[in-house]
Specification:
The protein is mostly beta strands. 8% of the residues lie in helices and 50% in strands. Strands 2-1-7-8-9-6-3 form a 7-stranded antiparallel beta sheet, covered by helices on one side. Strands 4-5 form a two-stranded antiparallel sheet.
């Protein structure tokens, strides 16, 4: 069974051109899939609830952690997207060591800076995805 090592994974963001987000320490993408609704009726004899798919899917969210770097162009793109008045979606891409990619758009991004004890200053970003992700 093949596996893809994490070393060499690159997270990118940018509207006009995808730019590496530097100093990343970890990344996760959660795609939630089909949205369901409770289709249980009061006249059913089954004990368990019944759920049906709505025809829509929840694109999920992405989490990115990195060391803060005030000179990093990729981190600057995220900061600019948060403060922009246009509120445009931010195209993002993850490229793995085997050159496979996941492309997705972020509808909103939260940005948290933290510092603790003997560690460097860190940034945690949470992106609410929109639309369908592309796996290549």
């Amino acid at each position: 069974m093949a596996y893809v090592p994490v070393k060499g994974t690159i997270v990118k963001a940018g509207a006009s051109a995808l730019t590496n987000i530097g100093q990343c320490t970890d990344f996760s993408l959660s795609i939630e899939g089909a949205i369901t609704y409770d289709a249980t009726t009061i006249d059913q004899s089954d004990t368990f609830k019944t759920y049906r798919q709505s025809g829509h899917a929840e694109p999920g969210s992405a989490s990115i952690s990195c060391f803060y770097d005030s000179t990093d162009a990729g981190q600057d793109i995220i900061q600019a997207a948060i403060t922009a008045s246009t509120l445009a979606d931010v195209p993002m891409q993850v490229t793995f060591a085997d050159s496979s990619t996941i492309d997705f758009d972020a509808a909103s991004i939260s940005y948290e800076i933290s510092a603790a004890g003997e560690e460097g200053v860190k940034v945690s970003m949470e992106a609410k995805c929109t639309g369908d992700p592309t796996f290549a």
